[in-house]
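Open question from group meeting: does this chain pack into something compact, or does most of it stay loose? Before anyone orders reagents, we agreed to write out a predicted structure and look at it together. Recording both the input and the output here so the notebook holds the full record.
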Amino acid sequence: MASMTDDLKNALSSIVSGAGDVFSATRDVAKNALGSTVEAGGEVASTTMVTAGSIVSDGVKVASEAGVSLEEATTGLVTGAIEGAKEAGMSLEGAVEDASRGAVSGVSHIGGDVGTAAVSAVQGAIKAAGEIGEDSGTLAKDAVIGTLKAADEIGSEAGALVRKTLLSAAVLPHDIIDALLTGKNDA
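Structure tokens returned:
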């Protein structure tokens, strides 16, 4: 993981100095880090969940230290982890859920807004779906599940905040969010 942290620090330091964008840098580093970890470990199934979440969580910490937008970084990290999981032949459902869980957990550890982190994670899953040719509704659902699990592990207040933020976020597909959070399906 040290290599991924160093790569992300280098990428983000060039952004802070004005050369690049946060989303692309974090996406690329997370994607490459996940692929490298799987290649080194060999066992795809056993490394998928822990790796996707820890890459995103560690990346959030580095982004915070670099002083870049946590929203953009979180979206990029989740997108990259999902793209890397797809390329490595990993379980997408597990990788999406764990990357999203890592986003909320990582932001919580640095004292950030877990509701905003949840929205950014779901946005990252939707962006990844478009890039890798998967169903955005399915990946958004998996991301919502991951963010809720992380928030509930943090505490009931965090869980309530994430639910409220996801339901009120204008940038998310409300039919999916509503169905998951309220159990109502308008279809």
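Observations to bring back to the group:
Confidence is low (pLDDT under 50) at residues 44-49.
The chain has one domain: 2-182.
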